[in-house]
Amino acid sequence: MLTAWLFQRGSAESRDPDEEKPEKERIGQPSFLYSHSLGLTLFGLFIASFLLHWFGSARASEMDMARHGAASTGYLQYLLDAELWFESFQNWQSEFLSTAVLVVLSIFLREKGSPESKPVSAPDEQTGS
């Protein structure tokens, strides 16, 4: 349902890259922020999620240290802690693995009616629209 809505609203998959752009889109120079809005937004979400993870993990570590009577290290010191980086890389590894699996499987497998999938009858070597 969401895919159909995005397709109708002009998601990247709904436009033919070989199609001539309408005159309205050619006029004017888009701003830097708009031209890179997707990348900037994704980078902002990455930074926000890392900060939330950092502060949440540091707080949990402080609570654990307090239970055991150890002194608190503080947020900046925790940034250098191996536990934070182990947790982060473990999370990133699973995300990259799932993305890689989707990319590789989408070469060989199909989903009828999905704009992200190749047509069912298309050969594996076919790329693009």
Automatic annotation (TrEMBL):
It holds the Pfam family DUF6766. Keywords: Membrane, Transmembrane, Transmembrane helix. It comes from the Bacteria. The chain crosses the membrane at residues 32-55. InterPro entries: DUF6766. This is Uncharacterized protein. The lineage of its organism: Bacteria, Pseudomonadati, Pseudomonadota, Alphaproteobacteria, Hyphomicrobiales.
